[in-house]
Every structure is written in C-alpha cells, then in structure tokens.
Amino acid sequence: MRNQIYILGKLMEIVIIFFVIMTVLFFLFRLSPGDPVSKVVDPMLTPEDTQYLIEQMGLDKPIWEQYMVYLKNCSTGNLGVSFHYGEPVFKIIKERLGWTILLFTSSTVLAALVGVFLGKISAWNKGSRLDNILSISALVCYTLFIPWFALLLLWIFGFKIGIFPLGGILSPELWVTNSSWFARGLDILHHMILPLITLFIINLGSYLLLMRSSMLGVLREDYIITARAKGLSEKVIRNKHAAKNAALPVVTSVGLSLAFSINGGALTEQIFTWPGIGRELIFAVSNNDYPLAQACFLLIALVVLLANFIVDMLYAYLDPRITH
Amino acid sequence: MGTSLKLRVRFCFNLLLLVIMLIAVAAFLSSCQKPRNPGLLNIGLPEEPRSLNLWLGTDANSRKILSQIYQPLYRRHPETLEIIPWLARENPVFDKKNLTYTVKLRDVKWSDGSDFTSEDVLFTKQMVFDFKIPRYYSKWNIIKKIEAPDAHTVVFHLKKPSAIFMSRVMTVPMVSKKEWGTIAKEALTKAKPLRSLQDYEIEKPLGTGPFVLSEYKKGSYIHMKKNPYFFGRGQKIGNHLLGPYVDSLLFRIYGTSDVAILALEKGDIDYYWGDIQPGYLKDLKELDSIDLYFNKKSALYFLGFNLRKPPFNDKLLRQAVAMVVNKEFILTRILQNFGTPMQSVIPSGNHFWFNPNVRKYEDGKTRDERIKSAYGLLKAAGYSWDTPPVSEDGKIVTPSDIRLPSGETMDDIVILTPPADYDPKRAFTGTMVQEWCRQIGLPAFSRPMAFNSLLDTVKGKHEFDAFILGYGKLNLDPDYLRSFFDSKNDKPRGWNMSGYHNLKFDKLARMQTTLIDEKKRKVVIWKMQEMILEDLPYLPLYNPYVIEAIFNERFDGWVSKVDGIGNIWSMCVVKPVDSLEE
Prior knowledge:
The structure holds 2 protein chains of 2 kinds.
Chain A (H helix, E strand, L loop, with lengths): L1 H30 L15 H10 L6 H13 L13 H36 L4 H15 L2 H15 L11 H4 L5 H39 L2 H8 L4 H28 L4 H6 L5 H10 L3 H29 L6
Helix pairs in contact in A: 1-3, 1-13, 4-5, 4-8, 4-10, 4-13, 5-8, 6-8, 8-10, 9-10, 10-13, 12-13
Chain B lengths: L2 H30 L7 E6 L14 H7 L7 E3 L6 E3 L7 E3 L4 E5 L3 E2 L5 E2 L1 H14 L5 H4 L2 E8 L2 E6 L6 H5 L7 H12 L4 H6 L12 E7 L3 E6 L9 E2 L2 E2 L6 E6 L3 H10 L4 E2 L8 H5 L4 E6 L4 E6 L9 H10 L2 H8 L4 E3 L25 H14 L3 E2 L16 E2 L9 E5 L6 H15 L5 E5 L2 H11 L4 E6 L8 H6 L17 H10 L5 H18 L2 E7 L1 E6 L3 E2 L11 H6 L1 E2 H5 L1
Parallel strand pairs in B: 1-14, 1-15, 21-22, 21-23
Antiparallel strand pairs in B: 2-3, 4-5, 5-9, 6-7, 8-9, 10-11, 11-14, 12-13, 16-25, 17-23, 17-24, 18-24, 19-20, 26-27
Helix pairs in contact in B: 3-6, 10-12, 16-17
C-alpha cells in the first residue's frame, strides 16, 4: 500500500510539473521578440501581407485564447503544424527522432560501458601510471570543444585521408541508384562512424571520472574491509562488492543522459549534417516556429520526467527506506 | 598491476583494434560501391529548403529547387537584365487605349506531358486572388480581369497603367490547374485557406522547367531529373542555346559552410550554391580544380536613421555623419575588397536605374578633411563643443561631447546592428561608425542585437536612433524605393523604417508606378534617388560581391549574372567537361 501511494504521488508530481512546463513554454515563446514572419526581410511583403500571414497562423487572437487552443490541442495529442515547414510537427519529430536516437543513444551506451569499465580500473589502481594516464585522458576528453574536435576529425578522416564522408547520413549518389538494402545499411554505418567517435570520446571522459570518483568512495567503506577480512579475492571485491555499488550514480547519470539524448546535440548535428532533433530545435527557436519548438521541448521534458520516475522507482526498489 | 587485469586490458585493446579494422573494412566497402554518374551535377546547399510547396517555399533555398520546376511567362535576360519571353512566345502587345497586355504562349507542356495553356494562366491568377498570396496579391491587384481567347493567348486587362506589371506580375511562376485545382478547392473551404494551401504536402511538383523532382530525402538530398518535355531544349533564348546538358541535379544539404567548402575542394560537389566568405578564398585560390566567381549583388546595406525623434530628425546631423563615414575603409578593411561602396540606394549593378550623380559625401577625402567638413556643417547649424574636433589652429583633436543647438548635451546615440555571429560585416561596420561619430563628438555606441529583436525594435516599435541593416536580394525593379520611403509605409511593420516623410517624394514614388515609358520612369527614379541622398533617411554603405566557387574538373559553362552563377540559365547550359572537349 505504501509503495502504491509513493508511486501515485510521483505520478501526480509528473503531471503537475509537465503542466507547468507546458504553460511556461507557451508564454516564454510568446514573450520572445518578434513573430514567425518578423524575420523576413523582403520589401515585397507588405504590412498587410504580414498581418494576413499572422492571422492565418492564428497569432492575431488574444494570448489567452491561443493558450486555451494550445492546451486543448496538447491534451488530444495534436502538436500542431510547423509554421516554417508547413508540416505536422509530429511528422517532423518522427523523421528526426530516429536519427538522433540512433546516434546519441548508441554513443551514450558505448561511452557508459567503456567509461564504467575504465573508471573501475582507474580507481582500483589509484596512484599508478595507468590511473594517471586514464584520469588525464578522461579530463582531456571531458573538456574537448565539440565543434573544434568534430571539424578536426572531419578534416583528417573525411578530407585529408578521405576514408569517411564529410557529414550527412548517407551517400546520395548511392541512394539514387537501385542499390541493395545491405549497401544502404553499410552506407549509413559508414556515415555514422565519425559523429559516433566524436560523441563517444566526449562522453567517455565524464563517465570514467564519475565511476572513478564513486568507486574511490566505495573502496573506503567498511564492507570492503569486511570483504577483505573474509578472504575474498581481489577480483570479487572489485567487481561484486565495490563496482556494483559504485555504479549507482553512474546508472542515474546514464539514465538521465539517455533521456536527454533525444534532445540530440545541436553542434554535433550541425557539423556532421546529421538530420536530428537538436538541429531542428535550434532552428525552430531562432525562427519563432512555436509549434515545432514547443513540441521538441515538451518531448524532452516528458522523457526526462519519465526517466526520473523510472530512476526513482529503481532507487525505491534498491533502497526501500526511500518509500518511507 | 595483477596478471588478470593485464589480460583484461590486453583483451580490451585487441577488441578495440578489431573494431577499428572492421570500421576500416566497412568504410572501404562502402566507398567502393558509390558509382559516379558523369551526367550528375552535384550542388551543395547551405540549408534545408523550407518546403516544395510553391506557396510556402519562399526562402532562398526552396527557391533554388522550385525555380527549376515552376516557370514564369517572362524572365530577365542574364546579361542585359531586360525582361524577355520565357513561357511566352514574344513580347506582349500593349493596348494603351484599353489598358490591355496580350500575351502569346509558346507550345509548352507540363512535366507529365499535358499541355500548358492559357487556362493555367487564368488559374494562377485566380489562386493569387482567392488566397491573397502574400508578395503577389498586392502587385496583381492592378489586374481587372484576364481573358483567354484561345489556348495560347492571354489578355490582361489592367485597372490603371502600371510600370511594374512586367517585372512583378509577368515574372510570377505559373502553376498547373491539374496539380492545384483540387487542392485549392479543398483549401478554400477551410477556416484559414492560405494556411491550408501552404500546409499541403507536394510530393511531385508539376512544372514546365528544365528539371523535375525525382526524390527528396529530407535532411540529406534532393534529386532532380531532366524534364523530357522542357520547352527550351535546343532553343536559343537570351543568347543561350538551352539544354539541359546534364542528366540530373543532386542537391546535397550541408550543415556548415566549413564542411561544404571541404566537400567542394574534395570534389564531392561541383558547385556550392551559397555565399563564400572571403576567409576561405586563400585556400581555394591555391587549388587548380577550383574556379572562383565574383558577381555583383542586387543588395543594399545601409545605415538607417530614426527621423521621428532627435537627434537624427536633423538633416544636417545626418549629413555630418555621412561625411565622416569612410566607405572606402569599409570596402578595403571589412569587405577585404570583395564588394563595392554604395553611392545610391539602387545598386550600381542595376545599370539602368542606378543614378551615379547623386550627392556624395566627402568620398575620396582624408580623415582630417572629412572631420573638418562635418565640423563646419555642424558648427554652422548651431551645434557646439567645449573642445571642438578641430582646434583653432586647424588641427584634429579629440572633441568633447557635442551640444545641441539648444545648448543641451546630446543623449547617447545607439547604433543597432545584427550580432557578429549573424553578420560580422554589419557588426564591425557598426563599431566603425561608432568611432567615426565620436571623432565629431557624437556620443555613439554600437550595440549588436539578436536579429529578431533588432527587426522588432526597428520595424515594429520604432524605438531606435540608428541601425545597420541590409537587403540581400532586391528586386531589379526599383519600385522598392516606394516601399522604403513612401510616408504611407511609416507604420508598425511598414518598410519605411526611418519614418521618412516627404510629400514631393511620395508624389514621385506613386507617379513612377504608372509610367510605362521606361525612359520617363528613369528620370523620376533618378530624381527620387537624388532626394534620398540629400535627405539621408538611409546612408547607403556597401554592396558585397557574391563569391561562389565551382569544382572545374567535371562541368563547365556557368552563366554569371547579378547575384551569381546559381541561376536557371546555368542549370540549362552547364555541360560536362568531356562533351566540351569533343
């Protein structure tokens, strides 16, 4: 019963926070300067044309009326039509989301797996040469400037050596012919490698450092001394007693990173011409494309809230005291 | 380090090596299977086109695609800039008495093989009127009615004589009744007809142009094939024997110009249809495989003043600022000589309408001479300084803040500019104008502002002192002077951003729209330019070149015109290099 109340309470929290986010988003965009047509510098567009366009977008109505329409649409799952593309927002997100998840989720998972493993080794060998090398490398990775690093990789491997394409998700000259699905799959993989390496290296540093620091904390715990006193092997102590407990904050971090991975990364997507959500989000915000920008943010908010909920549930499961 | 750990590390290292090898093999296999079609012209685009729906795709990148599909009755000659027949067979016959233009159409087919007829012209007009299509409706409104006596003749009846009829009505792309008839009918039943029309997804646009859409992979590429029914094939129009001589066009979308330029250098693309910044030129010039093109732009970059309030409601103060602004400096230092200083509000590349005899403000003079002239003008107008910019012995000194003729000190002047990441040229020009103003004691401050906010402040709220903005792609017809400076357009969201009111100018601006005789109209347009350069609501600053580059090993024959080589003429005449050699 207590667990059910706890879950219900958390769900209520999510609903309320989501509603607040929806409202804040709506008013935040309306408060920003300009409107979807204000950026058009075209003398052929008369003030009457501008006013007519605004009316057609429904932006001439009082803001409360717009807000009610927005709430009604959101509650029925209607995210509206993009002002910029003239396409349903749902369709645009659907097209972009797959590419973002493919790239960012795979890089997050890969980086987390390798980061946890290397962080564990680094902490276990604290003060050794290996620890120094790993820690310094992780710091370098963590502080890399994404655009610079991405462009450097493109320049070396895409331009100078020429073994990878200069961005994009596919080779058009291959796709416009009747190429096989296998060839197309291979082509996507080929295009994915450089952005994947970029994100992997950048994410790796943070996971490694997080795991190392968490593991160092755990290694000072009494139960590690107890395990040693019991005569357990070093391998068992490291992997079963220390690493498992140390991985808890990393799991939280990975969970949230996975949720945020649907947000993509505007810079990485821009440089690698990766048609994901991140690029679209920035574009929508800068062009006052309210429906698209709102929908992207709502999606991110929803996924992050759900990820938090799952993490809370996991914590409650792992540590029953929390439900009390 | 324990043995087991060493083994694990070694295992990981080996695994990493294996993954790298697999990647290398995949990369090799993938790059081996990409065929290179010799008739495929690869073009880089800086951004994704907004839409392939003609009524929504009004942005530059959509136009690049749609201009290959939808065609107008008349278009401009690439070299002479005259309006010449395109879908029309010949120049229209104007009946002065009845105010009619009779247009004869060529034998043209739509890309599905059906005939393009006068019915389609009537239908296009009906769409513009029914949906009040922005940009077109206000211009087409001068049409009283259109008749189609036969399938290849259209008669336009005008309400009044119109000088912009040819440039603004006849150059609008025609649409097919077959493609749009049902869509338009359905959209008109909706509460927001225009929005419904714009939101309609067009998968295979039906046009009369040299290319048809083959495939659009969003975020990646647009593939266009030769239109087998293109009316221009083998015809000599505008002194060019039209093809197209390539099999297809492949537009590839790039996220940044850095990557697009690398793709051009590597030969992945044959042409980058976007502006190249001067910073890239050093590398590009060193490559034999790259040809560079520098063309004038139909653009206007200017310093605008707010004439509605002090201090710039004083013409003499504006003229003094114009005297200290060094356009030569902007050209050589900021544009790095890739452009021209602007003398008038019509670019010099627009030969016919450009007036070279407008008032010039100390052009070619030294810094000291400029300051002295500005000082003399302001002093005579009653402005004063505790320490004037020119000392009693005629030396230039750092002045104190200027005092208005009333004796009060002048409030800070803010010059709004777009931010440097949006347009470094305008941002740096703002900083320089600030410094030049300070040389005569004006308390000027350049303030970069997000572009949306800048437009909102200047165009919507009119809360500013001065600003630097530009129009990157002006129509070649000078009627835009009316939009910019007619007092009727001094309203929120109106194009008269400076708040210029001059009844004589208004009269001329309205009169020129009715002058069909171009020579007479030119006299009026020249007079209008003289008035603007005398009153200075805008001080024209510069006009940058359009810098473009091509990879020259596969295709040649690009057609240069105002605004660059990216145009339909190029697409119709560019040939594979091999065929040129033969």
